[in-house]
Amino acid sequence: MPTLSLVNFNIVCATLGGFVSLFGLVSYLCKETFYLSEACVQLVLAGVQLPKRYLQIEWRSLSLLLGPGMAAMWMCSSLLIWAMIPNFKFLHALVVGACVTPTDPVLSNSIVKGKFADKHVPRPLQRIIVAESGANDGLGYPFLFFAMYLLKYMGMGGEGFSGGGGKAMALWFYETWAYTIFLSVAYGTVVGWLSRKLLHWAEEKRYVDRESFLVFAIALALFIVGTCGLIGTDDLLACFIAGNVFTQDDWFRLETMDDSLQPTIDMLLNLAVFMWFGAVCPWSSFLNNSIIPIYRLIFLGILILLVRRLPIILAMHKYIHQIEHFSQAAFVGFFGPIGVGAIFYLSISREYLLGIQVDGKVREDAQQVAEAVNIVVWFLVICSIVVHGLSVPVGKAGYHLPRTISSVISTSTADEPEPVSISNIPHTHSTAMPRADGGGPSYRSRRRGEPRESPNPTPFRIGRSVIRPHSPSSPLPGVGQSDEPERPVNLVIHEQATSPDKSPEECLRSV
C-alpha cells in the first residue's frame, strides 16, 4: 500500500526546487523593477569583485570603518540591548551586541550592484561598502570573545573556572588575535596567492576548460571554509582575504566579468541558505519567551536599525573620501544590514556559552545569555531582511506615487490650455531685424497704440525662413504693397554680414 514519506529530505527538495522555479519566473522583475534580490554569502566573490590592490590603496578609509566604526556599532548595539532587556547585565549585552556588529550590505544585493546601484550609487561608494562588509564579517571575533571570556572567568564570581580577568585577557590576545585573526589573514593570503599562480599556469598551458575556470572561485571558497573549520580559524575573514589576493592583478575579475555561471551558482546557494534560515528561525520564541516581551523586542529592532550604525558614519564621513556628501553618509549609515554573519556568530556564541558548565549543568548566566542571543539576534536578522530588502522599492514607490496621482488627476480634470498669441504680448519686435523708430521707406515703426497692418505678426527665425507666403490681402510688413513674392529674412542678414559697409535699408533693397 503506497504511503506518504514526509521525511525532511523530501520536504526540503520539494520546497527548494519549487521556490527556485517560481522565483526564476519573476526574477528579472524582482531584481530590476522592484530592486529585490537574494543575498550573496560568498565572501570570496566579494573579494574578487574589488579592483586590484584595493585593500592596500584604500587602507585609511577601511581602518576607520573597521576600527572606530565597528567599536561604536558594538557599543551602541550593546547599550540598546542592555536598556531594553529586563534584568540583563551589561557584560551579557556585550555578547549579544557583538553578534550583530558585522554588517552584511550584500544582503541587499541591488544596493551595491545592479540597476539601482548603477543609477544612484557612485562606483567608489559601492566598492568601499563591499570591502567593509567582507572584512568586518570576519572581524567580529575579537568583540564577541572579549565579552565571552570575561563572562566565563568573571561572571558569577568565576564559578567553576579559575584565573579571573587576567586569564580572560590572555586567552583573548592569544587565541582570538594571534590564532584566529592573524592566522586566518596569513592562511587566506597564501591560499589566494597559490590559487592565482596555479590558475595562471593552467590557463597558459591550456589545461583548464572554461566551465572549471568559471567555478574556480566557488570551489576556492568551499575549500577555505572546510579547511579553516578543521583548524579552528576564522573562515569568513580567510575567504575575503583569499578572494582579494586571488584577484590581485585583476585578471580573473576581468575574465569572468561577462559570464553568468558564478552568479547562477551564487543564487542557488543563497536561496538554499535563506530557505534554511526560514525553516530553523525560532518564530514562536519571539512571542513566548522569558527574556524580553514582544513589544520591547519590536522597539529594540527599530532602535537597532536607526542607532546602531548611522551616528558613527555621519560623524566620520568627512574623513572617508569615498563618502562625498551628507546624503551619501546617510545612505551608507542606513544600509548596514544584519545578515548571514550574525547567524554565524550566533551559532559560535551558543556553542561556547552552552559549554560553560558547572557540575554537568550549564551555568545560570551562560544559559540566560544563550537564550537571549537566540531570540534577539534572530529577530534583528528578520527585521533587517524585511526593512533593508524593501526600503528601496517602497521608497521609490513613495516618491513616484504622489506625482503619478497628481498627474492623473490634473490630466482628467484640467482643460487643454489655449495657445497664447504673440500679438497679445506688448513687446514683440523681432531681434533678427534692427528697429528703426525714426521711420523710413523700408521700415514701419511700431509705436505703442498704433494699429498693426496684419492681425498675425510675422515670425522670424535665423537659419531658414519660416515666413508665411505672401498674399495680396496680406502685404509684407515694412515693404509695402508688392506683386513680387516675399524673400526670406535670413537673406537680409546674410547680405549685411557679407557687406558690413551697407546700411540695413540698402541690404533690404538689394535682396
Automatic annotation (TrEMBL):
<keyword id="KW-0472">Membrane</keyword>
<dbReference type="InterPro" id="IPR004712">
    <property type="entry name" value="Na+/H+_antiporter_fungi"/>
</dbReference>
<dbReference type="Pfam" id="PF00999">
    <property type="entry name" value="Na_H_Exchanger"/>
</dbReference>
<feature type="transmembrane region" description="Helical">
    <location>
        <begin position="62"/>
        <end position="84"/>
    </location>
</feature>
<keyword id="KW-0812">Transmembrane</keyword>
<feature type="transmembrane region" description="Helical">
    <location>
        <begin position="214"/>
        <end position="247"/>
    </location>
</feature>
<feature type="transmembrane region" description="Helical">
    <location>
        <begin position="6"/>
        <end position="29"/>
    </location>
</feature>
<feature type="transmembrane region" description="Helical">
    <location>
        <begin position="369"/>
        <end position="390"/>
    </location>
</feature>
<dbReference type="InterPro" id="IPR038770">
    <property type="entry name" value="Na+/solute_symporter_sf"/>
</dbReference>
<feature type="compositionally biased region" description="Basic and acidic residues">
    <location>
        <begin position="502"/>
        <end position="511"/>
    </location>
</feature>
<feature type="transmembrane region" description="Helical">
    <location>
        <begin position="294"/>
        <end position="314"/>
    </location>
</feature>
<feature type="transmembrane region" description="Helical">
    <location>
        <begin position="90"/>
        <end position="107"/>
    </location>
</feature>
<feature type="transmembrane region" description="Helical">
    <location>
        <begin position="128"/>
        <end position="151"/>
    </location>
</feature>
<feature type="transmembrane region" description="Helical">
    <location>
        <begin position="171"/>
        <end position="194"/>
    </location>
</feature>
<dbReference type="GO" id="GO:0042391">
    <property type="term" value="P:regulation of membrane potential"/>
</dbReference>
<keyword id="KW-1133">Transmembrane helix</keyword>
<feature type="transmembrane region" description="Helical">
    <location>
        <begin position="326"/>
        <end position="348"/>
    </location>
</feature>
<feature type="domain" description="Cation/H+ exchanger transmembrane">
    <location>
        <begin position="41"/>
        <end position="393"/>
    </location>
</feature>
<dbReference type="GO" id="GO:0005886">
    <property type="term" value="C:plasma membrane"/>
</dbReference>
<dbReference type="GO" id="GO:0015385">
    <property type="term" value="F:sodium:proton antiporter activity"/>
</dbReference>
<protein>
    <submittedName>
        <fullName>Cation/H+ exchanger</fullName>
    </submittedName>
</protein>
<dbReference type="InterPro" id="IPR006153">
    <property type="entry name" value="Cation/H_exchanger_TM"/>
</dbReference>
<dbReference type="GO" id="GO:0036376">
    <property type="term" value="P:sodium ion export across plasma membrane"/>
</dbReference>
<feature type="compositionally biased region" description="Polar residues">
    <location>
        <begin position="421"/>
        <end position="431"/>
    </location>
</feature>
<dbReference type="GO" id="GO:0120029">
    <property type="term" value="P:proton export across plasma membrane"/>
</dbReference>
<feature type="region of interest" description="Disordered">
    <location>
        <begin position="412"/>
        <end position="511"/>
    </location>
</feature>
<feature type="transmembrane region" description="Helical">
    <location>
        <begin position="267"/>
        <end position="287"/>
    </location>
</feature>
